[in-house]
Design goal:
Blueprint lengths: L1 H17 L38 E4 L5 E4 L15 E5 L9 E6 L3 E2 L6 E5 L14 E2 L2 H5 L1 H4 L13 E5 L6 E6 L3 E4 L3 E3 L12 E4 L1 E2 L8 E4 L6 E2 L3 E6 L4 E3 L3 E3 L11 E3 L2 E2 L7 E3 L2 E3 L8 E2 L4 E7 L6 E7 L16 H6 L18
Antiparallel strand pairs: 1-2, 3-4, 4-6, 5-7, 8-9, 9-11, 10-12, 13-15, 14-16, 16-18, 17-19, 20-23, 21-22, 21-24, 24-25
The chain binds 2-acetamido-2-deoxy-beta-D-glucopyranose (NAG) (2 copies).
Length: 359
Amino acid sequence: MVRSLLLSLLGVLALCSLSTASVEAIEECPERILGNERRRACPRKCQHDKECGSKRQCLCDGQCGLSCVAPGRTCPWPLPPGKNFDVALLSPSPSFSALLEVRCKPGYTMPNRLDATIRRCQGDRQWSGDEPVCTASTDEGLAAEPTLLPEVPCSLPDDELLSVQGSTVVGSTIHYICASGSVLVGHSDNICHENQTWQYPHPICHRVSCPPPKEVDRGHLVAVQRTEYEVGDTIYYLCKKSFLLDGPNQVTCLPNGTWSAEPACRARCPIPAQRSRVIVGGVKHWPYDLTDGLVAHGENVTFFCKHPDKLCSFTATEVCVDGQLTPPSCYLDPTWLQFKLFPHRLVSEIDACDPADLQ
Ligand SMILES: *[C@@H]1O[C@H](CO)[C@@H](O)[C@H](O)[C@H]1NC(C)=O
Ligand SMILES: *[C@@H]1O[C@H](CO)[C@@H](O)[C@H](O)[C@H]1NC(C)=O
């Protein structure tokens, strides 16, 4: 009976490994429903190799069903010597889908009363099934049988964005992790109860996306037009000539679905003074000497104002904000006559007031 069971198990496993070679055999790979096989986590589900990237293939991974696995990776081998059992590799190498026979020494059996079992090298590089335990096959062992039945684990979530860490056997705790670009909604830890139910429903991984970025006046976005963007996508901003970019020239879609910045294109300001020098960038200029008579967004412009009683000047600074630069209230633009006839008496050209005069 043991032998026929082993043979049928081998048959299923053989069919399963055949699925790599023939399309019809894919039908033979079980859906991902975890039963007796104890696993840490299943690799990503798939239907075709092309879903698995360049290093992996879509192969049948036992109870995980068709999964993206790296067939060249191996399971631990040789295994440390077991107590009361012998281990033999049935395949040429301990790589994916290789089979291993565990046989109890004479007079010993496993908890299910069989004297041998087959373990398969899984996509997670672990041998399938529990660590073998062979105990002396006494009547006592038979009497204790009900409590020694293999534990059935809780089922794993079927969400390719969701992976789990930990064991799904009764009484264990698992931790869920969402793939990057998605956020976990629900409990991030769970415990498998006696009756193979989880304490909480599996959480869901919501894919995060950013809405199309805001159009920018007086500039353009350098981006592929899409209705939504993935986390990490980057978009570049350019301003039309003579406008200054206020903010970074690139923005990125953040993990919370927002853009890292909202740059704007700001206009330059005409200087509201004609016949008086002003200080721009630390240098005293006639406004008409500045390029186009304009200053950049954010630039400070310092004006000269006349002391109300004395013949001396003091300064007042204003900032160009997106095309708007208002002169300080103390500033008076000289008349054309003053400018032409007495250029040296213009307020911007006379001596600065003594600080004491400005108290
Ligand atoms: C999104 O994340 C960024 C950076 O972590 C943060 O500055 C911003 O406030 C967040 N926005 C929202 C709507 O949570
Ligand atoms: C303008 O003046 C403010 C305050 O003194 C200063 O913080 C800022 O850096 C100046 N801006 C420029 C462009 O020089």
